[in-house]
Amino acid sequence: MTPLLLLHGALGSAAQFDPLKTLLPEGREIYAPNFPGHGGAPDQGAFSIAGFAEYIQKYLSDNNLSQVDIFGYSMGGYVALYLACYHPDLVNRIFTLGTKFDWTPETAAREMAMLDPEKIEAKVPAFARILAERHAPADWKAVLLRTADMIHGLGAGSGLAPEDMAIITCPVTVGLGELDNMVTPEESKATASLLPNGLLNILPGSKHPIEQTDVVLLAKRLKKFFG
């Protein structure tokens, strides 16, 4: 059985997958790394989609994994597709959830506006504490600022172009929570249509945060897709 790799989202960590992992088949190898600078992992200067994909390539090599299935949440889904585009031999199947594909200067600016550490600390201190605990010993404010820089790059065109999506031939399910307020059905549907073996999958009742996803339903969809 192909090992399953779980890739977390921006500002996230592998620990957020703990509830999901309990619902996946026990006999399957599951790997859930932290991206550099996230979840206490050392910041190795790889705060970009390309850099994170390169890190995952090395992670697979270090763990003697020749090919994996990937579930990528939010940014993790984008990294998975980037890896499949440039290293197709490493990826068997991909299931994304809540991954944003519509990156323009305008959409990037809207996302970046929500990544002001001082405003978060003042207006949503509980979230600031979560981020501080999640990324310790790293400075959570630095994680936010580097993430904002990455998003600026996506808005400027550093991500995957439509012609890149068109050469990703592995089966891909583009998942979207029905109540996701960060990713639109239109951009998810458009990306699924660009992928030669793409399929759109809507999760009823789920919002964007992984903690507000119907994890039981998600696990069922993943088991059906990955086999």
Per DSSP, the total helix count is 10
Rg to the nearest angstrom?
Answer: 16 Å
In CATH, the architecture is 3-Layer(aba) Sandwich
Q: What portion of residues belong to β-strands?
A: 5-15%
Order of strands across the main sheet = 2-1-3-4-5-6
Output the CATH homologous superfamily.
Alpha/Beta hydrolase fold, catalytic domain
Oligomer description: single chain
Low-confidence runs (pLDDT<50, min 5 residues)?
none
**H/E series:** EHEHEHEHHHHHEHEH
Global geometry: globular
Topology:
Blueprint: E1 4-7, H1 18-21, E2 30-31, H2 49-62, E3 68-73, H3 75-86, E4 91-97, H4 105-113, H5 117-123, H6 125-135, H7 140-155, H8 162-165, E5 172-177, H9 185-194, E6 198-203, H10 215-226
Parallel strand pairs: 1-2, 1-3, 3-4, 4-5, 5-6
Helix pairs in contact: 2-3, 4-7, 5-6
Please give a handful of descriptors for the protein shown.
6 strands, six-stranded parallel sheet, 14% strand, 227 residues, alpha/beta, 10 helices, Rossmann fold
